[in-house]
Design brief:
Blueprint: E1 7-10, E2 15-18, E3 21-24, H1 31-34, H2 38-52, H3 56-75, H4 78-109
Antiparallel strand pairs: 1-2, 2-3
Length: 116
């Protein structure tokens, strides 16, 4: 008998794990940024996000996000544009976090994160 995948939501960490992949819902739930003071977290978030925009996967996700919003606009108007934009933004956030996590690890450990 096949076992169904479970969807576990950790309310304290703000992550959702399904089949071993963590989805982050807030910046505070990202392990590399979780223990930092708020100002330092914001500074590292901005630097990591800018770093991730240089990566191919993030650029593809950005194009997909724009495509979702445009598809919503062309198929129905305001409401569907919002749904498409929200779906695209969620995708972009997850991909940007995945691409920026190695940057944040290096930055926190002082291993010389790449210059922006």
């Amino acid at each position: 008998m096949a076992r169904a995948a479970t969807n576990r939501l950790d309310p304290r960490g703000g992550t959702c794990q399904k089949l071993g992949m963590a989805l982050y819902w807030r910046v505070r739930s990202i392990p590399e940024l979780r223990d930092l003071p708020e100002r330092e977290r914001e500074r590292l978030w901005r630097r990591g996000y800018l770093y991730s925009l240089r990566r191919r996967r993030t650029r593809i996700a950005l194009v997909a996000a724009i495509g979702f919003a445009l598809t919503g606009y062309l198929t129905g108007g305001t409401w569907t544009t919002g749904v498409g934009a929200l779906a695209g933004a969620a995708l972009l956030f997850q991909v940007a976090v995945a691409e920026a996590r190695p940057f944040w690890r290096k930055e926190r450990d002082g291993d010389g994160a790449p210059e922006l």
